Automatic annotation (TrEMBL):
Annotated source species: Staurois parvus
Reaction it catalyzes: trimethylamine + NADPH + O2 = trimethylamine N-oxide + NADP(+) + H2O; N,N-dimethylaniline + NADPH + O2 + H(+) = N,N-dimethylaniline N-oxide + NADP(+) + H2O; hypotaurine + NADPH + O2 + H(+) = taurine + NADP(+) + H2O; hypotaurine + NADH + O2 + H(+) = taurine + NAD(+) + H2O
Family of the protein in this entry: Belongs to the FMO family.
Record InterPro entries: FAD/NAD-bd_sf, Flavin_mOase, Flavin_mOase-like, Flavin_mOase_1, FMO-like
Highest taxon of source: Eukaryota
Protein name per UniProt: Flavin-containing monooxygenase
Length: 398
């Protein structure tokens, strides 16, 4: 009997999940609550509830050769680093080429996923969905969770004393779409990740002054690499991996630090990371150095408190008369449709085998796809995870 698999979400992970199911002879049904595929990469000017959001100017951080699926190369006329609309076009081409959309039920919300009464024996799931006001429940042999990790904005209010008193505008980066309405404003951007730096380099051409905070520092990698090629074509090579595994870890880290600081002296710009190299996701940006040198972006340490108009920082400095605060404090993820006996984030964080299947579950028939932060493109990791998970469902892998 062909096993039925429910795929939750039709973003990049959901699409490659559908394809992996088909390759293993499984029968996928994908549930997508919006009207189209693409997930994070489908830009809209309106902020949609419970859906990932991006800004209009977003460009990929890795080159097209690195972030394409293994069996579907990017079109040759696509640029090396893709604006979000171009990557969405690629996703559309991928779905059309492998005829994936016919397995998707659009405008269908997953309300509940719970274990079938005989789960310890058959590993099956009851999936309740709603579409056009009508609820349905169906039985599936396995589940692939592909809802993404850029939906629930994390706003650590307790980390910013006094921010509720601030009289200017406060928003999370999830709400930022275009650089409209920032002319002549004094803007503080909290968080020096890829999003924070992208927004700061865009707004600094319009705002009277942009301040960018970092508590821990960050390693910066330019898109432009050796001999004018994309940086990752040089960086992600077998010889570099061979050297890293051959020499002591301390030596390989020193070599990488030296390479990065030769391109951009992090200590000089007050962003030298306090942690081990690549302990967290590196930053990919080509503009930040020139913007800091020109003074249009001023780097500040961590915020200690806010007043009605000002921000205080850990070095004792104060920035006065701020108009806007943008919190680039990242995202969390949650599964309100999933029974907590299967996965409770606060308790189960890190308790996913291979970062995919919950430890201790009676039957390995549920997989969480792309809930990780690799040094490299998440979509490539998602493809490999789906291949492995579907083989586990099929009984080909343990």
């Amino acid at each position: 009997m062909v096993k039925k698999v429910a795929v939750i979400g039709s973003g990049v992970s959901g699409l490659t999940a559908i394809k992996a199911c088909l390759e293993e002879g499984l029968e996928p049904t994908c549930f997508e609550k919006s009207c189209d595929i693409g997930g994070l990469w489908r830009f809209t000017d309106e902020l949609e509830d419970k859906r990932a959001s991006i800004y209009s100017s977003l460009v990929t951080n890795v080159s097209k050769e690195t972030m394409c699926f293994s069996d579907f190369p990017m079109p040759s006329d696509f640029p090396n680093f893709l604006p979000n609309r171009k990557y969405f076009e690629y996703i559309k081409l991928y779905a059309e080429n492998f005829k994936l959309t016919k397995y998707i039920q659009f405008k269908t919300t997953v309300c509940r996923i719970e274990k079938h009464p005989d789960f310890p024996v058959n590993g099956q799931w009851n999936v309740t969905t709603e579409s056009d006001g009508e609820k349905k429940t169906a039985i599936f042999d396995a589940i692939l969770i592909c809802t993404g990790q850029h939906v629930d904005a994390e706003i650590p209010i307790d980390s910013f004393p006094g921010i509720k008193m601030f009289k200017g505008k406060v928003l999370h980066s999830r709400e930022y779409k275009r650089p409209v309405g920032y002319d002549g404003k004094r803007v503080l951007i909290v968080g020096m990740g890829n999003t924070g730096v992208d927004i700061s380099t865009e707004l600094c051409t319009l705002a009277s002054q942009v301040y960018l905070t970092t508590r821990e520092g960050v390693w910066i990698i330019p898109r432009l690499g050796k001999d004018g090629y994309p940086f990752d074509l040089f960086f992600l090579r077998r010889i570099n991996n061979w050297i890293e595994n051959l020499v002591p870890r301390s030596v390989s880290r020193w070599m990488l630090k030296r390479y990065l600081n030769n391109r951009f002296n992090h200590e000089l710009y007050n962003i030298q990371p306090i942690h081990r190299i690549f302990w967290k996701e590196p930053l990919v940006n080509d503009e930040i150095a020139s913007r800091v040198l020109s003074g249009s972006i001023i780097i500040k340490p961590g915020v200690t408190k806010f007043t009605e108009t000002d921000a205080h920082f850990s070095d004792g400095s104060i920035v006065r008369d701020l108009d806007v605060v943008i919190l680039c404090t990242g995202f969390g993820y949650s599964f309100p449709f999933l029974d907590e006996s299967v996965f409770k984030r606060n308790e189960n964080k890190g308790n996913l085998y291979k970062k995919i299947i919950p430890l201790g579950i009676e039957k390995p028939t549920i997989a969480f796809i792309a809930f990780l932060l690799p040094i490299g493109p998440t979509m490539v990791a998602a493809e490999i995870q789906c291949r492995w998970a579907t083989r586990v469902f099929k009984g080909k892998s343990k």
